[in-house]
Fold:
Amino acid sequence: MLALAIPALLAVLAGAGLVLQQILNANLRAGLASASWAGFASYAVGLTCMALLAGALRDPVPAASVAGRIPWWTWSGGLFGALFIGLAILLVPKLGAATFFALLVTGQMLASIVFDQFGLLGLAQRSVDLPRLIGVGLLIGGVVLIRR
Structure:
């Protein structure tokens, strides 16, 4: 139990960081009068931070031969990150942070259950069961209560 306390706390802090990131990005959009440039700035800062982290950890640059063996679809994570950032920049001011993230978590849980059920993209297969379905139902109920 204690072994999971620090990872759980870090996950909660990461979630809080996502909320803060999207509020800052929405403010940047208002200041720049551009959702696309706000998203670009967010990614530019993130790219710089990741480059600094890789340098600090002294991670070697992967060889081109290694990169060439990776399936093409594994490179698409940044596309979904950009979609998330862009939609968050546009939707957080309209929906509010709580509603946006409640809907976001609901979408994550629905997709997660499908990916687990079918073991998609290399995940171990984990069948949908009643407690998981109840959890998704409670999340959707939470969205309704937060949005009202």
